[in-house]
């Protein structure tokens, strides 16, 4: 099958890659991906850990609605731990 191909504003071909997985075990809960996502794809979950713990262990990211992903890959560009896995949309 062929991949979905879009065009940039300048007319160049572009194959968007959509989020398919998040390595929650690698996530440090920094929230960078949550802040840059232009859609409602991610969810930042507070953990039940002690408040005296390191702040990075206080939250974890989860995938909320991957069907709303637009393939911009902004989340992966800001993730310091490379937690995201992407794939093109097969049409």
UniProtKB/TrEMBL annotation:
InterPro entries: 4Fe4S_Fe-S-bd (IPR017896), 4Fe4S_Fe_S_CS (IPR017900), FdIII_4_nif (IPR014283), Fe-S_Ferredoxin (IPR050572)
Residue ranges occupied by any 4Fe-4S ferredoxin-type domain in the UniProt entry: 18-47, 59-89
Keywords: 4Fe-4S, Electron transport, Iron, Iron-sulfur, Metal-binding, Nitrogen fixation, Repeat, Transport
Pfam families: Fer4_7 (PF12838)
PROSITE patterns: 4FE4S_FER_1 (PS00198), 4FE4S_FER_2 (PS51379)
Cofactor: [4Fe-4S] cluster
Top-level taxon in the UniProt lineage: Bacteria
Function: Ferredoxins are iron-sulfur proteins that transfer electrons in a wide variety of metabolic reactions.
PANTHER family the UniProt entry points to: ADENYLYLSULFATE REDUCTASE, BETA SUBUNIT (PTHR43687), FERREDOXIN III (PTHR43687:SF1)
Protein name listed in UniProt: Ferredoxin III
Lineage: Bacteria, Pseudomonadati, Pseudomonadota, Betaproteobacteria, Rhodocyclales
């Amino acid at each position: 099958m062929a991949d979905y191909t879009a065009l940039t504003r300048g007319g160049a071909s572009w194959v968007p890659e959509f989020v398919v997985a998040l390595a929650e075990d690698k996530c440090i809960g920094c929230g960078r991906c949550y802040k840059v996502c232009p859609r409602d794809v991610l969810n930042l979950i507070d953990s039940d850990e002690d408040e005296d713990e390191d702040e990075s262990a206080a939250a974890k990211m989860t995938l909320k609605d991957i069907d709303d992903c637009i393939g911009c890959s902004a989340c992966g560009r800001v993730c310091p731990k490379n937690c995201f896995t992407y794939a093109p949309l097969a049409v």
